[in-house]
Design brief:
alpha/beta; 417 residues
Length: 417
């Protein structure tokens, strides 16, 4: 059992946010998600619409910083406190199911065959023993954000279409001070953000490898393809000097500050960038690999019914989940947050596909892969450690990728065996 699952199972007390005892309507339920301004705004809109259609139900939204979120959830629900509906990352599902923090969605309200007919196939990772444990309002893919002003200043006509072009463009966008310190990076990097997904499901495949076997229980990137992918990625700093891992602490912070020419991120970043004053940016599909292969990574956050919700609260919570997974709700989420509708009927409209911002992400869904995580945090840390060993210890690429694969295999073995 992973350390995180042990933590989840062991946390039965802790700081929680109590529900208001002065509800003015018949039933009050609580919805939890982490703090992300655009997501909070979107949920406020959906709650207002839901309450107008269901005047006997009040929904209270509670949010926490991302770093504290999972601990708060794990402490609250076993104590009978906290959310009735909780938002969780799809990669955390195993932990939440094993810790009995969530309960299956009833098949009469959420028929599996209907879900599989209406949603993108990636959602089937939420199915356990014939029932769905949770459903998303939106799904994500990756794309390349680029700073239009910096591109124009450097005389660059448009974003890169290949990895080779990305390197050459990044060189033109990189700036250093008189002491040789980076003041502007050509591209942001950092396995702590979205790059571990970009590496695993995109770069490894583009360099001829596969991240896992068909059962998702065996790590397979400790080969020439995985090594080539890690070398290309770390060369951005060590050879081409167009980036610095940890530049301005977080990759997205550097891009928002206008200090980075390019940035790989998810569609959820759209809302935050749109509210950044003075930032002129565009979006393009991820660059193709050396042999022209396009790949992408798709993920999503889901809404789940917690084991704390019982009786009339459970019934109200089910209604709320059904409402926030309608086509209308998905379009509101897209317009407000930038995350893509989880149903093709809502997402693959002509208007969305032609949208200069949403379009590249929607195109990416067509060839995206979804990682089936055993322990998302632990598996991310493995790749963070691998790059740090290359940079700080001078470990060879071959040894770094082999060590990463061995470490990740231990995580998978611990979970599945």
């Amino acid at each position: 059992m992973t350390s995180w699952k042990k933590k989840l199972l062991g946390l039965t007390t802790g700081a929680v946010v109590a529900m208001s005892s002065g509800a003015s309507k018949a039933v009050e339920i609580e919805y939890w998600q982490y703090i992300f301004d655009a997501r909070i705004q979107a949920m406020d809109i959906l709650i207002e619409k839901f309450e107008a259609a269901n005047p006997d139900i009040t929904v209270k939204q509670t949010t926490f910083p991302y770093a504290d979120y999972r601990t708060k959830v794990a402490a609250a629900i076993p104590a009978g406190e906290g959310p009735d509906v909780v938002q969780l990352f799809y990669g955390w599902l195993n932990d939440y199911v094993d810790a009995e923090l969530i309960t299956p969605l009833p098949t009469d309200m959420f028929p599996p065959e209907q879900i599989e007919a209406e949603y993108f196939p990636m959602v089937q990772a939420m199915k356990r023993d014939g029932q769905y444990m949770a459903l998303p309002t939106a799904v994500r893919s990756l794309a390349l954000f680029y700073n239009k002003r910096l591109f124009a200043e450097a005389g660059i006509e448009g974003p890169p279409k290949t990895l080779d072009e990305l390197v050459e463009i990044a060189k033109k966008l990189t700036k250093k001070d008189a002491s040789g310190n980076l003041t502007q990076v050509g591209i942001t990097t950092g396995m702590n953000a979205q790059d571990h997904h970009w590496f695993r499901e995109v770069l490894v495949r583009q360099f001829g490898g596969e991240p896992y076997d068909a059962t998702n229980t065996t790590v397979t990137y400790a080969d020439a393809g995985g090594a080539a992918a890690l070398k290309w990625y770390t060369d951005l700093q060590t050879v081409h000097q167009v980036t610095s891992f940890g530049f301005m602490d977080e990759p997205q912070a550097a891009f928002k500050a206008g200090r980075a020419g390019m940035h790989i991120d998810g569609s959820f970043r759209i809302g935050a960038l749109e509210s950044t004053r003075g930032l002129e940016w565009g979006v393009a599909e991820l660059p193709a690999g050396p042999d022209g292969l396009k790949s992408n990574y798709s993920s999503y956050w889901v809404n789940a019914l917690t084991s704390k919700a019982t009786g009339e609260k459970a019934e109200a919570a089910k209604k709320f989940i059904a409402f926030i997974t309608t086509d209308e709700a998905m379009q509101i989420w897209l317009d407000t947050v930038g995350e893509l509708p989880a149903k093709p009927s809502a997402g693959l409209t002509d208007a969305n596909k032609m949208n200069p911002v949403f379009g590249p992400f929607i195109s990416g869904l067509g060839y995206a892969k979804t990682t089936v995580f055993a322990d998302e945090s632990g598996q991310r840390q493995v790749l963070m450690d691998a790059t740090q060993r290359v940079f700080l210890e001078g470990q060879s690429i071959e040894d770094a990728i082999a060590a990463a694969a061995a470490e990740e295999q231990k995580i998978l073995d611990e979970y599945y065996n």
